[in-house]
Amino acid sequence: MELGSALQFLDNKSILVTGATGFLAKIFVEKILRVQPNVKKIYLLLRAADHKSAIHRLHNEIIGKDLFKVLKEKCGKNFTSFISEKTTLVPGDISHEDLGIKDYDLVQEMMKEVDVVVNLAATTNFDERYDVSLGLNTLGAKYVADFAKKCVKLKVFVHVSTAYVSGERSGLILENPYSMGETLNGVSGLNINAEKKIIEEKLDELRLQGASEKEITRAMKDLGIERARIYGWPNTYVFTKAMGEMLVEDFKGNMPTIIVRPTIITSTYKEPFPGWAEGVRTIDSLAVGYAKGKLTFFLGDLDSIVDLIPADMVVNATIVAMVAHASNQSSETIYQVGSSMRNPVRYCNLQDFGFRYFSKKPWIDKDGKPVIVSKVKVMDSMASFHRYMAFRYLLLLKGLELANTAFCQFFQGVYSDLHRKISFVMRLADIYRPYLFFDAVFDDINTEKLRMAARSSLVENDVFYFDPKCIDWDDYFMNIHMPGIVKYIFK
Q: What are the distances in angstroms from CA 96 to CA 102, 139, 208?
């Protein structure tokens, strides 16, 4: 596989990026604008009511971020004019046909001009409403693929999924596609149109009953988890992403298509600078809770591999895969981008990094006092977690319930608050359980072939690095990731 020059490939190209305000999308856009200023145009599709609110989102949620400071320094006073020349805002919504774009002329322009479509729009909430998740992660994937097919100059369509579409499978997880209706547990009958109908019927039923918006949200969340588990997936997010992959595979025809499956994405390793992060991501929620003294125990297997990959490496792998497929040099279509195969890190390592970092640099609380951290109690099974919760909280809850009855609902407020908090913790533990006891390694043979091709024939191999073997996890966590999340995520 001869890759040639990625910068030459990007030169004078028009790229449509969906989900433009997302974490990975911003890093992707910044990278291309910084390394190839001669890109013709990047169309940024984002949810907005009109062009004015789209401009507001561009400034507040994209270019106003620290992430763009290197590009700002590079462009100097020309930054604003450079951004307006190189980007076009596209207010839309991928859960609708033609991506919900109301501007007919803009749609026609994009279909004539776009060379590459990169679908990064998704809801990554494990516990999302089923209607929202199916709309974005499943049907959205089909609508973006459909739009890509209509682009007459299209060189390649990129769909970004997640490695965790594998559900709770153990062992070596291969870079295999999903065929339509395939399920993880062998239960037959999965039909995406039927799932859509189930949602519509449930919403009609709830509205007939006069359910409040809060009740509808709760019912939609429960429905998502229920439907996912019927077919073997642990949560709504990975279930709807798997169905999205099915639609892409079914719909692509002879369109050059790649599916990128990143594992758990962490802060930037190197570019545009080390440690940029945004939003409380999976493992970072543990770090935030721990540093603030709110995480009193850890539920999970400390020997489990936690598959992490810095965001800039995911972006680089995606760009190199684009180059390979645009010239029809690769027949592989799925790339799992992670570290478990080549440079694994375990939960016990994370525990050690967290303890060492926050012992040395404790979080200062709102009273100006440092939060002293200690090694947390570890529960290595769901059974031990349920015993702990029963002993620590459920007995107290039972006592409050009895006292509340005896004292004419006097403790109702305290009882309701505690009940809500306990239910929330139990639900979270149930949703995250598959990842805390994860017993698998993601094969990345296709991604490794890409790396080998990049090493031997990509002119800018050093610019588009994506080999997790080069990461020293100790150095990365202690000097890059932890300082990054303290700066950008801790509030």
A: 11, 8, 25
Q: Phi then psi for 203, rounded to 5 degrees?
A: -65, -40
Measured between alpha carbons, how far is 321 from 449 in angstroms, rounded to an integer?
Answer: 10
> What is the rounded distance in angstroms from the CA atom of residue 104 to the CA atom of residue 129?
31
pTM for this one?
0.92
The residue among 318, 195, 168, 182 whose CA lies nearest residue 249 is 182
Chain segment 55-96, per-residue pLDDT in tens = 999 999 999 999 999 999 999 999 999 999 999 999 999 999
Instruction: Considering the candidates 13, 155, 221, 241, report the single residue annotated as catalytic.
Output: 241
Task: Characterise 413 by phi-psi region: left (phi > 0), alpha (psi -120 to 50), beta (else).
Answer: alpha
393 counts as catalytic? no
Give Cα separations from 133 to 183, 199, 354, 439, 455 (angstroms).
Answer: 18, 11, 33, 26, 38
Q: Is 357 a catalytic residue?
A: no
Asked, as a colleague might, if the bond just before 370 is cis with ω within 30 of 0, I would say no
CA Rg value for the chain? 24
Enter the tokens of residue 62. 């994209």
Task: Quickly count helices (H) and strands (E) in the chain.
Answer: 20, 13
Q: Which uninterrupted H or E stretch holds 81?
A: helix 79-86
Alpha helix stretches (DSSP H) within 257-410: 282-291, 311-326, 347-360, 382-389, 395-406
Q: Exactly one of 43, 164, 178, 237 is catalytic; which is it? A: 237
Model confidence pLDDT, tens digit, residues 405-414: 544 554 455 5
Helix (H, G, I), strand (E, B) or coil at 67: helix
Tokens at 185, concatenated? 């547990």
Q: Which residues contact 189 (CB under 8 A, 6 or more apart)?
A: 181
How many CA within 13 A on the CB side of residue 298?
A: 26
DSSP assignment letter at 38: T
